[in-house]
Amino acid sequence: MMLNKMIRLFFGFGVPFGILMGIYYSFNYDGILPGILGGLVAGIVFGAIMAGVLGYLHVRSVKKKAGDSSNNDYDVNRSKEIELPVSYDEAYKLCIKSLDQLKKPGIKDKNYSQGLIMARTGKTWDTWGDKVLINLAESKDNKTHVRVSSKPAFLQVVDYGENLENVNNIISFLEEGSRS
Question: Which end of the chain is more exposed for a tag (fewer CB within 10 A), N or C?
């Protein structure tokens, strides 16, 4: 999975940079051949540097935020499920309160009967914002099944563990709130 992410970073940064540098070299160094070669080399070098640096920073951040529960999953789309020993009504209220654990939270939609809460976080240095989805379902014995998902609001290859942190913070709040 991480190799796929590194390849996306390499091409995402290397190709546009290489094209721009190729155009620049074509105009400034007598012809198209120096432009193509210069752009190709510049794109490969820049793409490799950016993939290495951003990939390293992402892995380091995810490991730091995951702690001991790291399973080498560096995906930006995160989700976890939990069974709360409380009624559906109480679990729904807890889930609404749990959104305060997010950075710059905002509730976009909520539907009590469908057990759905959609929220969004604000932009930070690490991310352009995230979409958080909480699904609730009544279980037997006065318990409630909750699934918490978080993903980037826009196309992002790395999030530096922000979505993992969103999910973990909400799950921790729900576990603590259901005990009291």
Answer: C
Amino acid making up residue 166: N
Kind plus residue range of the DSSP H or E element containing 132:
strand 130-138
Contact call for residues 118 and 131 (beta carbons, < 8 A) = yes
Dist. CA 83–CA 8, nearest whole Å? 36
Residue keyed to tokens 């390849």: 7
Handedness of CA 12, 17, 20, 22 (dihedral sign): negative
In the chain (180 residues long), the average pLDDT of successive 10-residue segments reads 83 93 89 89 95 90 74 81 93 93 90 94 87 93 93 88 92 88
Residue ranges of alpha helices (H) inside 88-161 are 88-98
Parse the chain into domains and list their residue ranges.
2-69, 78-179
User: Any residues with CB less than 8 A from the CB of 80 and at least 6 apart, and which?
Assistant: 147, 148, 167, 168, 171
For tokens 């799950």, what's the residue?
171
Cα dist. 117→148, 149, 159 in Å?
A: 10, 11, 22
Question: Rounded CA gap, 102 and 90, in Å?
Answer: 20
Instruction: Tell me the whole-structure pTM to 2 decimals.
Output: 0.80
